[in-house]
Amino acid sequence: MALRNAVMAALLDGPASGYDLARNFDASVANFWMATPQQLYRELERMEAEGLVAATVVEQRRRPNKRVFTLTEAGYAALRDFTARPPRPPAVRDELLVQLQAADAGDTGAVRDSVAERVAWARAKAARFERLRERLLAGRTEEEYLAGAERIGPYLTLVRGLSFERENVRWGEEVLAALDRRAAVREG
Fold this sequence. Notes:
Radius of gyration: 21 Å
Shape: elongated
Strand content: 5-15%
Number of domains: 2
Structural class: mainly alpha
Helix content: 55-70%
């Protein structure tokens, strides 16, 4: 998937500056797509050159002027084309899994520390996603939200990200327990 598709999907929420997109990317699409602010700005420039987005300069007092981007008809058409074709299967490329695969030949303690760090990171991310979920629901049940919300895609992807991070915690705790049991046997 190209970054442009994630940017166009984020712009479905309304016009945004590059700064706004970068700031909100973490809360909106980071559970399934990562990008640095520099990548976002470069992609917005390319998308503008290709006519997928249009920029309007907004003058600001006491701050530099900003460019606010909106989807063009060509951008909406590109999103329709993108959503009409089947996605490619995801590929997992996780350096921690390679380290874990090689742990017996290396520093198992360091790998254990990395797994523990991943668990802590996943817990924090899951908590952030849960807060965002509660904010989206705003006191409604999930069924009420899904039936009445203008857009449900952001919620459904958020639920997937929450599930993913919860599974990372579950898996990491299982790995830590296995590594601890193995270390105890070797020490004993």
